[in-house]
Design a protein that fits this description.
The protein is of the alpha+beta class. The chain has three domains: about 140 residues, no CATH class; about 60 residues; about 100 residues, no CATH class. It has six helices and 21 strands. Belongs to the FlgI family.
């Protein structure tokens, strides 16, 4: 065995023995002060629907919008009977104006039905101004919409897939006004961690200062201030900072979605030694209905429905399992799986362990 081969074998063995560190780029865990999106909203009309639009009797705002649109186009003095149409729907149009969006660039918009339209498939959005919180118009949307869901209905049955009353238009709005913001006029850059943590903030500060120079200072668990020096511009400084990699720290947390039964347990979750028991009774009640018919040619007989109820009790023996103290995530999962519990029972067990003071983590229920 050559010395080179021995060296490669030893290096491979050490690499497999060392724990892998989750290094992420700084740009993926921080936001930059002032560099953010702005929400836009507008009210408009979708036309060209195949009889699936708003009923004007139940959506008077749609009728008023149609009147206003036709008057602007030089068509007025229409009676209510002359305006009865099922091919138009009132919609709310929303969009997100990205940072540094310039006049003439396009953005995506989301269209949502406001009235009782059953589907927006095949419709076209008419010119709709989009305003921000300051009341100014920043974009104008128009174009054919794309609906992911569909709805079909017959005489005695119907089927709905997805949400046919919601749609989007890719590049459906043109930016007409820019947000007044000059990034190069800032004297300092403030980076905000998406997940505030003192350890992560210190690691980001250290990584920036080692790569760029002593320009970064962690102000708190969320904010890192960067003050460039020399001839480098803010753009050049950010281009140097964003690719740097750090290992973020995280708070021990257990997140539970009680509606779907989803449980997410963080890697740093620890519990003290506890004994867990799971078991109980399951009672099932079932109602069956039998039809009693009168005999043939009987006089005064009537058909009656006779209920038939049955009750079943399933008794499950309680099981105890001991989960060692200060266990890792894998040991905790193995201990819960050893009891053979489902998602609902696991949620109850985790809540009980937290109430007993043995779960050293934040328990968040959404």
């Amino acid at each position: 065995m050559t010395s080179m081969f021995k060296f490669l074998l030893i290096s491979l063995t050490l690499a497999l023995a060392l724990p892998a560190s989750a290094q992420v780029r700084i740009k993926d865990i921080v936001t930059v002060e002032g560099v953010r999106s702005n929400q836009l909203v507008g009210y408009g009309l979708v036309v060209g629907l195949n009889g699936t639009g708003d009923s004007l009797r139940n959506a008077p705002f749609t009728e008023r919008a149609i009147e206003g649109m036709l008057e602007r186009l030089g068509i007025g003095n229409l009676t209510e009977d002359e305006m009865r149409t099922a091919n138009t729907a009132a919609v709310m149009v929303t969009a997100s104006l990205p940072p540094f969006a310039r006049m003439g660039s396009t953005i995506d918009v989301v269209v949502s039905s406001l009235g009782d339209a059953s589907s927006l498939r095949g419709g076209t959005l008419i010119v709709t101004p989009l305003t921000a919180a300051d009341g100014e118009i920043y974009a104008v949307a128009q174009g054919p919409i794309a609906v992911a869901g569909f709805a079909a209905q017959g005489l005695n049955a119907s089927i709905v897939e997805g949400v046919p009353t919601g749609a989007r238009i890719d590049n459906g709005a043109i930016v007409e006004r820019e947000v007044a913001f000059d990034f190069n006029e800032l004297s300092t850059i403030k980076l905000a961690l998406r997940n505030p943590d003192f350890v992560t903030a210190q690691r980001v500060e250290r990584a920036i200062n080692q790569a760029v120079g002593p320009v970064a200072t962690a102000l708190d668990s969320r904010t890192i201030s960067v003050t460039p020096f020399g001839k480098e511009s803010l753009i050049e400084t950010m281009a140097l900072i964003e690719p740097l990699q750090v290992q973020p720290d995280q708070v021990a947390k257990v997140v539970i979605d009680a509606r779907s039964g989803t449980i997410v347990i963080g890697a740093n979750v620890r519990i003290d030694q506890v004994a867990v028991s799971q078991g109980g009774l399951t009672v099932t009640v079932r109602d069956d209905f039998n039809v009693s018919q009168p005999e043939t040619l009987s006089i005064g007989g009537t058909t009656v429905v006779v209920p038939n109820s049955s009750v079943a009790v399933d008794k499950k023996d309680a099981q105890f399992a001991v989960i060692d103290g200060s266990v890792s995530l894998q040991r905790l999962v193995d201990g819960l799986n050893a009891i053979g519990v489902g998602a609902t029972e696991t949620i109850s067990i985790l809540q009980a362990i937290k109430a007993a003071g043995a779960l050293h983590a934040d328990l968040e229920i959404i």
